Each structure stands twice: as C-alpha cells, then as structure tokens.
User: Which sequence fits this backbone?
C-alpha cells in the first residue's frame, strides 16, 4: 500500500486535533505517514500522539535551519519528501499556512490541488462546500500526486495504533526560500474555552450585543462552547478578529451554532451554514438568520440569554 | 516603484450564484463585479503610492477573466490605479488555480519586461473560490518571497513589514522587494471612486492581452487540461423551516432551554 503523507499541525509540539482527523482520512487512502516539521526536541511528544491515530511512519524534519522563514522552505521540504516516498496522496490541514504550503507544493510537483475539503473518500474523491455553503461539490485530482487541504471537523478521529517508525529527514533548503521572515511573534492568549474551529458548540454575538458580550460568554460557558462574533462586532472593536465567523473569518461546522444579535448576512452564513443545528436569538422577526434556524427566539438577547443561562445551569445542577 | 495589483472579476455574492452544465462557475449569467476583497488590495497599493510622495510609483491593475471582467478593471482604474492589463481569451474559461496562476505570472513577467515589478499585491482570497492559494502559487512561479494576509502594511525603500493576525499568534513579517503581498479586509476601508476618478479613468491606458501575447499555449490552460476535475455539483437542500417563538416575559428562555435539552446539548 502506498504512503499517504499527512502534515502535522502543531503549536510547539502540541499536536492540534485536525491532525488526527487527517490521519483517520489517510487510513482510508493508504498507509498514513505523518510529517513533523518543527524543533527536533518536540518531535517525540508529537510522535506518541500521531502513532495513536495510525501513523505507520513519522518523518521528522528538524526546522532549525528553516525556522522563521514561513512557508517556502516547508514546501521545499515536502517536495523532497514526496519525491523520495512517492505518496499516493498528500493531506495538509486547511489553515492559512497549510493552504500556502499546498499552493507552492502543487506548482513544484506539477500536481493538482484541492483546497478546503470537508470530506475525502477513496479515489481520492473530495467534497467541498462552496458559494457560502449553498453548493456541495465533489472533485478529484487528475494530474500528479493529489494534494488536498482538509478543513477541521471533516472526520471523526479514530484511534488505531500505528507502528510510528521515526525517520529523520534533512531537506536541502534553497537560499531563495529563506527571504521572507517572521520578525516578531506574539502567541494568542488562551481563552480557556474550546478552539473556535474545533468546538462542538459555538455561541456567537453580533452588532445586536451593543458591545456587551457577557450574555454570550455566559451562555457559552454554560454549554461548554466556543465564542464567535460577526464582522460587525469585530469591526466595532468588541472582539478580536480571531473570533470572527464568516467568509473572511473562520468557517465553523459545529453540532450547534447559536447566533445572537446577528442578522445573517451571506458573508456570515458562509462561515456557519453547514452547522448541524442552528439557533438564533434576534429581536427582529424578519432577520434573515431565521431562514436558517432549527429553533429561533424573537426577543432581546440581553433578556433571553441570561435567563436561559440560568435555567441551563440549574438543570445541570 | 512598480506595483502590480491582481484583481478578480467574480459573481456577485448576494446574487444567486450557480454552476454551468460543465460544472464551471457561471461567470456570465450572474452579475459580476470586482471582488470586494481585491478592493482592499487596490486601496493598499494606492496608499503605498501616496506615501512614497517624491518617488515615482506606478500601480497597474491586472485581471485575468472573461470579457465582462473589464468592469472590474475599470473600477480599479476609477479608484486610482494608473493603468490596467486585462488578460482575456476563450481558452482561459474553466481554468483552475494552477492555470490562473500561470497566466497571472506570465502577465506579471510581461509587465516587468518594461520596468521591473517590485510588488505584486493580491487580495486575501477571491470571494467565489476562496482558495487563498493564488498568491502562493504566483510567488512560487515568479520565484519570489510571499508576505501574506497583512492587516497592517509598512514599506520603506525596498523593505516591507506587515502585521498578520495568524491562527495561533500575531506576527510581524518582513521581506525585501520584489515580493508578493496579500492583504486582508482588516487593512482598512477601501475608497469609493470619486467623480474625478471616474472621469480620469476613461483616459487611463488599458491593454487587453490574449494568451498568445503571453506566449502561453491554449493547451496549457482551461477546463480540459485542469489538474483537478469536478465530478458533481449539488445545490444544498434548503434547511427545513424551524420553530420560531416570540419571547414574552421569559417564555423565550424557557423554550430555548427546552429545545437545547431535547437535542441533548445540556
Ligand atoms: C467582502 C466581505 C466580507 C465579509 N466577511 C464577513 C465575515 O467573515 N463575517 C461576518 O460576520 N460578516 C462579514 N461581512 C459583513 C456582513 O456583510 C455583515 O455586514 C455582518 O455580518 C453584519 O453583522 P451583524 O449581523 O452582527 O450586524 P447587523 O447586520 O447590523 O445585525 C444586527 C442584528 O442584531 C439584531 N439585534 C439588535 N439588537 C438586538 C437585541 N437587543 N437582541 C437581539 N437582537 C438584536 C438586529 O435585529 C439585527 O438583525 C463581510 C462583508 C463583505 C463585503
Ligand atoms: N483571475 C484572476 N485575476 C486576477 N487576480 C486574481 C485572479 N484569481 C486570483 N487572483 C488574485 O489572487 C487572490 C487570491 O485568490 P484565490 O486564491 O482564488 O482565493 C485574489 O484576491 C486576487 O488578488
């Protein structure tokens, strides 16, 4: 069986959940080989994790010579690894960085690229959600090694012990790849809540909050949810951009999405329309968000949310 | 300084966007416009020009798209770009990222043959494809560094510094021109064309190039040679109408709690 390369998404060695989803998908397509690009001393921690989700091999690329140089060297590393291992498919997380690596890699390998897949089945045949979630598209790559970037929540991670054989790999990085550089970096503060794109429940607020996100955060915490925001709330400076849901923010596809004081503009829908269950609280019964909902409350969020939060907390005892 | 800003003509997001029978995006039947996200790219290009004061800066808007895309090109000129290049050719229809980036790269090279291009500025994503990959592919093809997804842009001489709100960190990224830059919708409101700008645009140079002007063979682009193939497009079934209640004296909160409990979210 051919190898399927999976680029590990990690922060300082801590593997992010979408990696396990990619490994689960990789098992359908061949033999999962995880690729770790990062500091050598963090590789062991990551290896233990990916092995649990079926990685037969773990290629470790020590990033000391390429650290801080963004995506170009990573694309070179993957190219050389692909030339060496002739994988059947290359799976990359659909993050901003992942997509850029994939873009460069596709040109280098003269291979077709499919971005933002929400499902990948044997073939590989991908499923994408396009036009603000109004259409579903299935597609496949017809040239070279299929390179597919996969969105979070595209598969339920399945544990299955792999061999996890570590193989060190030292790519040759060109000087040209070492031009753009990270000058400074400030890690995002942890919120203590689930990661927006990975959360099972998301509670969002828009302009209708009037800038008061307490009712949103209260309900989110009662439900163990992540907090999201509309662009209007972000543009008003009420929430940082990293909380924005929509076309130019994050795409989320949770089990439950609760939109509060959000009108439901097409660009917002683009980021949440594929959520399983949608609930809205809005004081305007004509708000377009109500066209999407499974359940809606016409009312003032400043009254409805705190009362609901209290009832939920009571029920939980 | 020579700036090329890449602008795409896209179907209006608020209209009913569709697919053609061959599964390509309907770019003719649905009203199109300059991708809103590329307006930010034009805006930042113009701001770099305005800040450079004494230096001579040329901003060229570059668009690869159908004949109607001339509307998008014109809008960029009205906003303040100095000149424009519109690459259009029957053979381009149905091109994927790979082919689009090839045509863009060849056009940038041709523009650069007259005067070296220092900056290629892109939007963060096209509003129809949303791939956010063309800038990276363009950088790869042109052999340039990429400094992408900028919310704040500063240039000084040939140095570029940007701020980027990344997934896990806020970063400052630096590079030396020539390079490919992409900007987000956080980079600041894009200007509306002024009356003066609209009038001035009529006299600005606009060139229309075909594939043969770029030395690209028809066999290198278009649907039939795309490296990816769409198998099927399906309209998402409309969501079934949900239950809507009106809050009266707290009834909304109770009904909401009941609903969440019935779905086992509590
Ligand atoms: C290129 C482009 C990209 C964009 N990308 C995004 C994106 O990624 N994400 C995004 O969200 N938007 C995006 N937008 C903006 C989008 O078009 C809308 O402007 C935005 O989503 C509106 O946010 P909102 O619903 O919070 O505000 P509004 O549309 O102003 O709606 C506020 C709602 O709150 C309700 N309300 C007011 N007070 C209360 C109350 N007390 N209780 C209950 N309800 C109340 C009102 O009835 C109204 O429905 C983008 C736009 C463009 C052009
Ligand atoms: N056909 C095109 N013509 C001009 N610029 C384009 C075209 N396609 C993509 N671009 C540029 O590349 C950016 C990202 O596009 P995409 O990768 O399709 O999301 C856009 O914001 C444009 O700046």
Assistant:
């Amino acid at each position: 069986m051919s190898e399927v390369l999976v680029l590990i998404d990690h922060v300082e060695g801590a593997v992010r959940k979408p990696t396990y989803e990619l490994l689960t998908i990789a098992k359908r397509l061949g033999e999962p080989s995880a690729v770790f690009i990062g500091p050598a001393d963090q590789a062991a921690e990551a290896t233990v994790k990916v092995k649990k989700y079926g990685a037969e091999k773990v290629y470790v690329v020590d990033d000391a010579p390429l650290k801080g140089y963004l995506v170009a060297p990573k694309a070179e590393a993957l190219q050389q690894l692909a030339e060496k291992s002739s994988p059947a498919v290359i799976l990359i997380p659909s993050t901003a960085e992942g997509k850029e690596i994939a873009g460069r890699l596709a040109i280098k390998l003269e291979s077709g690229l499919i971005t933002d897949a929400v499902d990948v089945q044997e073939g590989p045949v991908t499923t994408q959600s396009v036009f603000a979630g109004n259409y579903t598209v299935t597609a496949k790559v017809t040239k070279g090694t299929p390179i597919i970037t996969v969105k979070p929540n595209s598969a339920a991670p399945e544990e299955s012990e792999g061999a996890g054989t570590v193989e060190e790999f030292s790519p040759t990085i060109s000087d040209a790849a070492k031009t753009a550089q990270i000058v400074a970096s400030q890690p995002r503060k942890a919120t203590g809540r689930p990661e927006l794109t990975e959360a099972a429940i998301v509670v969002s607020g828009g302009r209708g909050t009037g800038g008061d996100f307490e009712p949103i955060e209260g309900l989110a915490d009662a439900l163990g949810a992540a907090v999201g925001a509309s662009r209007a709330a972000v543009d008003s400076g009420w929430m940082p951009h990293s909380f924005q849901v929509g076309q130019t923010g994050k795409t989320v596809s949770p089990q439950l999405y609760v939109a509060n004081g959000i009108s439901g503009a097409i660009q917002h829908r683009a980021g949440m329309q594929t959520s399983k269950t949608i609930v809205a609280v809005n004081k305007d019964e004509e708000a377009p968000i109500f066209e999407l909902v499974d359940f809606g409350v016409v009312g003032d969020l400043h009254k409805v949310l705190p009362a609901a939060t209290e009832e939920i907390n009571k029920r939980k005892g | 300084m020579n700036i090329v800003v890449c602008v795409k003509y896209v179907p209006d997001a608020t209209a009913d966007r569709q697919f053609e029978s061959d599964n390509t995006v309907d770019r003719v039947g649905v009203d199109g416009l300059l991708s809103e996200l590329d307006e930010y790219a034009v805006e930042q290009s113009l701001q770099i020009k305005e800040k450079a004061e004494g230096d001579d800066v040329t901003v060229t808007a570059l668009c690869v798209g159908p004949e109607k895309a001339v509307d998008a090109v014109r809008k960029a000129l009205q906003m303040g770009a100095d000149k424009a290049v519109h690459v259009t050719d029957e053979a381009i229809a149905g091109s994927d990222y790979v082919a689009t980036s090839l045509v863009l790269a060849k056009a940038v090279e041709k523009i650069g043959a007259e005067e070296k291009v220092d900056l290629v500025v892109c939007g963060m994503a096209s509003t129809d494809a949303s791939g956010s990959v063309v800038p990276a592919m363009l950088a790869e093809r042109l052999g340039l560094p990429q400094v992408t997804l900028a919310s704040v842009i500063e240039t000084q001489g040939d140095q570029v510094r940007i701020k980027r709100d990344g997934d896990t960190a806020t970063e400052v990224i630096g590079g030396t021109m020539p390079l490919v830059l992409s900007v987000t919708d956080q980079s600041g409101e894009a200007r509306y064309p002024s009356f003066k700008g609209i009038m001035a645009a009529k006299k600005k140079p606009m060139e229309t190039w075909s594939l043969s002007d770029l030395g690209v063979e028809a066999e290198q682009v278009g649907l039939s040679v795309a490296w990816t193939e769409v198998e099927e497009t399906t309209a998402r079934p409309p969501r079934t109408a949900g239950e809507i209640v009106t809050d009266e004296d707290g009834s909304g909160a109770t009904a909401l709690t009941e609903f969440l409990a019935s779905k086992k979210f509590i």
Q: What stands out?
A: The mean pLDDT of chain A is 95.
